[in-house]
Amino acid sequence: MKKQIHVYYTGRVQGIGFRFTTEDIACQLGASGWVRNLPDGRVEFVAEAEEGILKLFLEKIQECFGRYIQDTNIDWQPATGGFDGFSITF
């Protein structure tokens, strides 16, 4: 069953390729959604896929950027089906 995650990362998460790597991971795994930098220095993303894929997605981000992430806030919800691919938004 598809689910959606809405995630906020806090730490030194901007200016290190976080959004581009997140987009790349999403495309590799077949997740849909978006990622963006926030004015307060956090990174926010929404992704939809099967639950196992989303868990792997989060693990891969942690592997790549764990040393830069200070805090992670994840909200799990049912998928809406409202995304076509994965993109970086501004």
Short description:
The protein is of the alpha+beta class and 90 residues long. It has helices at 18-29, 51-65; strands spanning 2-11, 32-37, 43-50, 69-78, 86-88. The protein has 2 helices and 5 strands, in the order βαββαββ.
Distance between the termini: 30 Å
* CA gyration radius, whole angstroms: 12 Å
CATH level 1 class label:
Alpha Beta
Per the principal axes of the C-alpha atoms, what is the gross shape?
Answer: globular
Report the biggest beta sheet as strand number plus sense, adding barrel if it closes: 5 strands, mixed
- Tally of helical segments: 2
* Total DSSP E strands: 5
Strand order of the largest sheet: 4-1-3-2-5
Please tell me the total number of domains. 1
CATH topology: Alpha-Beta Plaits
The low-pLDDT segments are: none
Work out the strand percent: 35-45%
Helical residue percent band:
25-40%
The assigned structural class equals alpha+beta
CATH architecture descriptor text: 2-Layer Sandwich
What is the residue-averaged pLDDT?
A: 97
Taken in chain order, the helices and strands follow as EHEEHEE
Please render the helix and strand layout as text.
Layout: E1 2-11, H1 18-29, E2 32-37, E3 43-50, H2 51-65, E4 69-78, E5 86-88
